[in-house]
Amino acid sequence: MRQRELEMLLQKVEGHPRPRAALEQYQTPATIAAEVLYFAHGKGDIQKRLVLDAGCGTGILGIGAKLLGAAEVIALDLDEEALGVAMKNARTLGVDLSLLTVDILDFPETVDTVLQNPPFGAQKKHADEPFLEHAIKVANVVYSFHNAETEEWVASKVAAQGAVVTDRLRFAFPIPHTFEFHRKERVDVPVTLFRIEGRPQTVKSGTRHRTAS
User: Fold this and answer.
1) What domains are there in the chain, each with its CATH number?
2) pTM of the predicted model, to two decimals?
């Protein structure tokens, strides 16, 4: 599958019908999701891998990973409504996701690859920190989006956990007028995608249930 084909498929992924500002529920644009997923695929981090989409929202990253040949994708989010839309999106695109309503800190397994676009911390400072730290603990490779203004802070957190940033990809995230406090129809936010390699720690085993097919 070519990157453009993947992007066209991901454009079918529906967003959250009632996003919450406190959770910073902004969907990853299909163009950016496709570029990152295709990059990860080229690195050997998707095909035949066990992939975790942490804070999956309506599932665009996890669905894209499955379309590119992931062996299994676990998609987790605390928002059951978002997971319901993710299930619908997965069925629309003909892929299976294992959906979990769980906090990232309570995810008990190890995986090959984590894909995540966590809250950047606009509403709660460093809301992305627990996502970053736990992802490094449970995965061999992590792909994580962060506000570009915090790029060096993120790099320091990665180094403190004994992991290594191998790549940085920079994007402008288009944020449409979504909440009442937004004053403009659209704002382009500078964002950095980090590819991180580390050695996952041993965590307790857990169970999950396949909830989309």
Assistant:
1) 3-197 (3.40.50.150)
2) 0.86
